[in-house]
Design goal:
By secondary structure, the chain is an alpha+beta fold. The chain is built from nine helices and nine strands. It folds into two domains: 60 residues, Arc Repressor Mutant, subunit A; 130 residues, no CATH class.
């Protein structure tokens, strides 16, 4: 009887938490005087039954959205093409892009059989994002102004059409404020880009 209750508590915890770490399950079962290492077996069995999915090492969810990587690598935000897609300003197919100041492995990763690109950013340039509703989640996403600055910072191709889209949706005063975090050379690049459309 105790074992069923124990399993129910774990499944109840998993339902309440969109993303959780193996340490969370360890803590839960330690409070029941169980061996914390038993958490690995529990999660392995739940994954085998299709009740949880592994996002990256140690992190699990009941969902299968690669955007959830933002919950695993903190602090971070969804940026570049992904941010524009969320705002309905990018219609082409693109990889999920995660931007973080943390020293993690950058480049291409596979999350739920989907390509995710992790970019590293200087700590002083890590700002300009907010949490927005995305299906059942709240995701950190760069705002339009920061997405534009990142676009130039990460040397993305900037067509005249895209510059027009950015200009139409950006707040000029906010962009000026954000540029104070960068050096003059970068500010010149930004201003030159804005003149192209």
């Amino acid at each position: 009887m105790g074992k069923i209750k124990y399993q129910q508590e774990i499944e109840s915890f998993i339902k309440k938490n969109q993303v959780f770490h193996v340490k969370d399950i360890k803590r839960l079962i330690s409070s029941k005087n169980a061996d914390p290492d038993y958490a690995y077996l529990i999660l392995h069995n739940l994954e085998r039954k299709g009740k949880v999915n592994r996002i990256i090492k140690g992190y699990y969810t009941t969902h299968d959205d690669p955007m959830l990587l933002a919950y695993c690598i903190k602090p971070s935000y969804i940026g570049l093409e992904s941010a524009l897609s969320i705002y309905g300003l990018w219609e082409q197919e693109a990889n999920v892009v995660l931007i973080t100041p943390r020293r993690v492995r950058q480049g291409l990763r596979q999350v739920f059989n989907t390509n995710v690109v992790v970019h590293l950013i200087n700590k002083k340039h890590f700002f300009g994002y907010h949490y927005i509703d995305y299906y059942d989640f709240k995701l950190p996403v760069s705002d339009i102004e920061k997405t534009f600055l990142d676009w130039i910072d990460f040397k993305r191709y900037l067509s005249k059409e895209l510059i027009k889209t950015f200009k139409k949706n950006m707040n000029k005063n906010k962009l000026k404020r954000y540029l104070k975090h960068y050096d003059k050379r970068f500010a010149t690049k930004v201003n030159n880009a804005l003149k192209q459309s």
